[in-house]
Amino acid sequence: MTSRQQILDDIRRALGRAHSQPPAPLAAPLLRIPQLARNLYTSLFVQNLEKLAGKCSVVRDASSVIPLLRDLLQGKRAVASNAPFLETCGIAGLPEVQSGFTDREALREACATADVGITSVDYALAETGTFVMLASPQDARMISLLPPVHVAVFPQSRILTNLDELLSVVPKPADETSSMVLITGPSRTADIEQILVRGVHGPGGVYAIIVEDE
Amino acid sequence: MSDRPTEGFNKTLDDPRLQLAIYSATKRLMDHRANAIEPSRLPDYQQLRDHANHIKKHTIEHLDYYLEQLETNLIAHGGKVVYCRDGAEVADFVLGVARDRDARLIVKSKSMTTEEIDLNDGLERGRVETVETDLGEYILQLAHQHPYHIVAPALHMTRYDVAEIFAKNLGVPNEVVIENQTKIARAVLREKFLKADIGVTGANFLIADSGAVVLVENEGNARLTTSAPKIHIAVAGIEKVIPRAQDLGVFLNLLGRSATGQPLTVYTSFLSGPRRASEIDGPDEFYLVLLDNGRTKLLADPEKRQSLYCIRCGACLNHCPVYRKIGGHNYPWIYSGPIGAIITPQFHGVSEDSWLPFASSLCGACAEVCPVKIEIPKVLLKLRAEVTQAERREGRGGLERFTFVVWAWIMTHPKLYLALARIGSKLAPLAPNIGPLRNWAREREVPRIASRSFHQWWARRERAKPHPQ
């Protein structure tokens, strides 16, 4: 008998269940989505990300992103994702920025030596200051992970209230991507004497640039 | 009942530095939790607990159904599912994959399940280098130690211990600044991540309706483990499955707040299968190992099976007056504290380490803070009864049983009781010198007995009362 068969048989015997017996009805998911005025989402997001030592800038429109990034980068090397919104902002035009990667190895090498990773986000969560990123041809996993600083540039329309709202918009993330990641502030640890240290394996610096008008 | 390992207890109790470390770390985690579930922040905390308990109960009671659903959905996304009865099967499987792909280096992110089966030892036998990447776990691996706490594995160590361990194993100068120690580990491990052939993780949740593995963490090492190498193997106990992705809101909220006081941990990864055709990065192969290792034994008893609801937040450890004194390494298995006290005997059999269910004051703090409402004291009592029954079957525990029979008989004969109580009160001060009581009295003071008993006082009071007219 295979291990699979034995384990499933042991479970059914212990529970007194027949093979492929349907389950009893299960309560509906508990989705708690707060009622919040749309114009408060951005300030709530900023407040919550800053609480976690993330930095935020809110700019009027896409054309204001480049000057801000130029100040931020100042000669540092950056890798940008292929997100359409980054293109809208003209980020690939910055001399410090490498982008357009489609090859895993080349991307990984670039990310391993870059100072800054620039991405957009698919959603953001106001209640927790969270970026939500779905891996896709537009957004690779490594850009928000390997460089010591992560900058996310996104329109404020991507902000949702909280995780439950995300799960009501994307009820089955696996249908869309192999990897949905929620990023809530800088990488951190408290493994030695419970002392908080930022930037362990992921970025120690997290920066959100939120664009009011698309 | 087997003897308690008192030598280990006393060593921990007599170590003031260790006592302070345990006390302050658990206190901080308690405070963080209390802060995060405060009604102004989480008014419906109790409702979330009820809901989580309901979902866990339902899933465990239909475990075969949800495992098969999980399997079907994960296969549809290109993942492979492997069932393993025990740790040896897991090690064989991982080593088999490593051999086929000529893999030399495995990176691991923190996982109690792989600790449970000593996977690292199993893999070392196959001559594959295995590196723990969670900072605490990495320190412990270098020091050849097991986790001290489910959530804070190196809770018992100071920066000076870490400095020594790093200097000895990594050939770096003595470094006692925690930020710099973290940088050293980051640099060493970053290289490992980029060279590794296989990433091994645990799983916080398995999602049946999506065929997905959910991992929560703060450091980013789980993200690197699951994204940098070409192969990802997740090892999870079969009880980790929940029905729907939409249930995650409740569980993630409870887990983060109960463990470290965070509404959400820094990273939550929702992973399903290898990278899709058009995705730029991510693993080419994705395996989910579903581990029994004794879990099916816990299912038969409708009351005790709730032990499988645990989401490993560690809150019961932080709030336990026993754990807070004896620490994590005095428990017989890697699961310590109240949750360890109820699952260890069920995995290993009640006759092994049978003292464990008795090492509790039944104060109930664990049940009060458990985010999925496991009735730990109730299960402890059930296990105590089973230990006693097992001893009776084996013809042991006769003296204790005889004592209670005599006690019960005396208690039902008031005159005899009063007479014996008078004698007993005179003899009480001698108790600490009598055989088995000596151990008990060593750490306690026998209270002074009043010169007059309550019965005597009451009788005199009644006599002195003026009679009503």
CATH architecture of the largest domain in chain B: 3-Layer(aba) Sandwich
Order of helices and strands of chain A: HHEHEHEHEEEEEHEEEE
CATH H level, superfamily name of the largest domain in chain B: NagB/RpiA/CoA transferase-like
| Total domain modules of chain B | 3
Cα separation of the termini of chain A: 60 Å
CATH class of the largest domain in chain B: Alpha Beta
CATH superfamily of chain A: NagB/RpiA/CoA transferase-like
Task: Please tell me about this protein's structure.
The complex is a heterodimer of chains A (214) and B (469). Helices cover 26% and strands 24% of the residues of chain A. Chain A has 214 residues and is α/β, with parallel strands linked by helices. Chain A has a single domain, classed as NagB/RpiA/CoA transferase-like (Rossmann fold, 3-Layer(aba) Sandwich). Chain A starts with a helix and ends with a strand. With 469 residues, chain B is of the alpha/beta class. Chain B has three domains: 120 residues, Fumarate Reductase Iron-sulfur Protein, Chain B, domain 2, CATH 1.10.1060; 230 residues, 3-Layer(aba) Sandwich (Rossmann fold); 63 residues, no CATH class. A six-stranded parallel sheet of chain B has the order 1-10-7-4-2-3, with helices on both faces. In chain B, strands 8-5-6-9 form a four-stranded mixed sheet. Chain B is elongated. The interface between A and B is large, with 75 and 101 residues. Strand 9 of chain A pairs antiparallel with strand 9 of chain B.
In short:
The complex is a heterodimer of chains A (214) and B (469). With 214 residues, chain A is α/β, with parallel strands linked by helices. Chain A has a single domain, classed as Rossmann fold.
Tell me the layout of helices and strands.
The complex is a heterodimer of chains A (214) and B (469).
Chain A: H1 3-15, H2 41-51, E1 55-61, H3 65-73, E2 78-80, H4 84-89, E3 97-98, H5 104-113, E4 116-119, E5 123-125, E6 130-134, E7 149-155, E8 159-160, H6 163-169, E9 179-183, E10 188-189, E11 197-198, E12 205-213
Chain B: H1 6-13, H2 16-36, H3 45-61, H4 63-76, E1 80-84, H5 87-100, E2 105-108, H6 112-116, H7 119-125, E3 129-132, H8 135-143, H9 159-170, H10 178-195, E4 198-201, E5 205-207, E6 212-217, H11 221-227, E7 231-237, E8 241-242, H12 248-260, E9 267-271, E10 285-291, H13 315-318, H14 323-326, H15 337-348, H16 365-369, H17 376-393, H18 398-411, H19 414-427, H20 437-442, H21 454-464
Parallel strand pairs in B: 1-10, 2-3, 2-4, 4-7, 5-8, 7-10
Antiparallel strand pairs in B: 5-6, 6-9
